[in-house]
């Protein structure tokens, strides 16, 4: 059971920082680099009362939210990126760090009409990790944190002149088992992507120059880094 809930996470944005760093899926080997909008480097505004991102933010490798797949829960297609993770532990991680996280739950954000799942997880190395086993533990042990998470995701684009984001399930967090099901389905979409069953529309993957075996893709790029589970 334990192995099923622990996944690798590539840290893109350390907590409290503002630069919108992300796995560049269209660049060879998918480096982590800062997003550019209209020719300018992108930063997330400090959204009162928060400072930058309020968790270590990143992605689970070997996952992909397929823009050609209409999600039955949200009614919207995927955002063409690996699945996002908010890591809630006490340590501020380093950009590019690969950590093992225990999945606790998931939020279904809808960003400009696209499904953009946000996995809630905790670093397995966190001193309190043993106390967190499902989403209700976050509610109990970090009161206000999940509400702040919804608030942050709802409003973070407003200072850039965008509308508030919306959520499926009335912005309720789904539990660990639901989250793991979503991660596993995005892993299936990733597998279809790297084996060329799905058109990635410009996503660069070493599979372009290797055989189709996902084993050979491991360790080659951030999107495929290491493995999904530990």
TrEMBL record:
GO molecular function: inorganic diphosphate phosphatase activity; magnesium ion binding
Gene Ontology terms describing biological process: phosphate-containing compound metabolic process
A Pfam short name: Pyrophosphatase
Keyword line: Acetylation, Hydrolase, Magnesium, Metal-binding
Xref: InterPro entries: Pyrophosphatase (IPR008162), Pyrophosphatase_sf (IPR036649)
Acetylation is among the record's keywords: yes
Cofactor(s) needed by this chain: Mg(2+)
Any one Gene Ontology cellular component term annotated for this protein: cytoplasm
Entry annotated with the keyword Hydrolase: yes
Protein EC: 3.6.1.1
Top EC category: hydrolase
Domain of life: Eukaryota
Similarity comment: family membership: Belongs to the PPase family.
Quaternary structure (record): Homodimer.
Annotated protein name in UniProt: inorganic diphosphatase
Organism in which the protein naturally occurs: Muntiacus muntjak (Barking deer)
Source lineage: Eukaryota, Metazoa, Chordata, Craniata, Vertebrata
């Amino acid at each position: 059971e334990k192995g099923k809930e622990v996944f690798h996470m590539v840290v893109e944005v350390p907590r409290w920082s503002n630069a919108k760093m992300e796995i560049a899926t269209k660049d060879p080997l998918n480096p982590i680099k800062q997003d550019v909008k209209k020719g300018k480097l992108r930063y997330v505004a400090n959204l009162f009362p928060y400072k930058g991102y309020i968790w270590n933010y990143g992605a689970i490798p070997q996952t992909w939210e397929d823009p050609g797949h209409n999600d039955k829960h949200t009614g919207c297609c995927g955002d063409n990126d690996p699945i996002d993770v908010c890591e809630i532990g006490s340590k501020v991680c380093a950009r590019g760090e690969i950590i093992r996280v225990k999945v606790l739950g998931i939020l279904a954000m809808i960003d400009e009409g696209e499904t953009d799942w946000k996995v809630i997880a905790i670093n397995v190395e966190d001193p309190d990790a043993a106390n967190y086993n499902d989403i209700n533990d976050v509610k109990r042990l970090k009161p206000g944190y999940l509400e702040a998470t919804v608030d942050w995701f709802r409003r973070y684009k407003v200072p850039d002149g965008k509308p508030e984001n919306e959520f499926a399930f009335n912005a309720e967090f789904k539990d660990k088992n639901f989250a793991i099901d979503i991660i596993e389905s995005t892993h299936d979409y990733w597998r279809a992507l790297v084996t060329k069953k799905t058109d990635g529309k410009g996503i660069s993957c070493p599979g372009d120059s290797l055989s189709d075996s996902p084993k050979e893709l491991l360790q080659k790029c951030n999107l495929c880094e290491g493995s999904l589970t530990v």
